[in-house]
TrEMBL record:
It holds the Pfam family HA. Residues 12-48, 53-109 form the Helicase-associated domain. Gene3D superfamilies: 6.10.140.530. This is Helicase-associated domain-containing protein.
Length: 111
């Protein structure tokens, strides 16, 4: 998936990505945009994520996949140090899943 950093070598890519997301939002709002359906399709084909929240979620998901590959489980509880932030994220995902299953508002979707 396409992720970009704000500074360093990828600063220009980050700014360009932000412009694409802004153009996409304008298009979604029915406003004039230079972003075409063909460009949207091309970006989606390479895994471009349209929302910053989606990028962060995907990054943590990828970390969880790597953790599972290394440790044989995706269940992270009570971790400190290196995996503490991933453990916190995983806990929030479990809580969001329970809310979704209970028919309550949740940050997760059924997708």
């Amino acid at each position: 998936h396409v992720l970009s950093c704000q500074g360093g070598l990828y600063g220009n890519l980050a700014r360009w990505s932000q412009r694409q997301r802004k153009a996409y939002r304008r298009l979604q709002q029915g406003k004039k945009s230079n972003l075409t359906e063909e460009r949207i399709k091309q970006l989606e084909e390479i895994g471009f994520l349209w929302k910053g929240h989606d990028m962060k979620w995907q990054q943590k998901f990828n970390e969880l996949v790597a953790y599972k590959k290394e440790h044989g489980t995706a269940y992270i509880v009570g971790q400190t140090g290196q995996y503490s932030k991933l453990a916190d994220w995983a806990k929030r995902q479990r809580e969001a899943y329970k809310r979704l299953q209970g028919g309550k508002s949740s940050s997760l979707t059924k997708e």
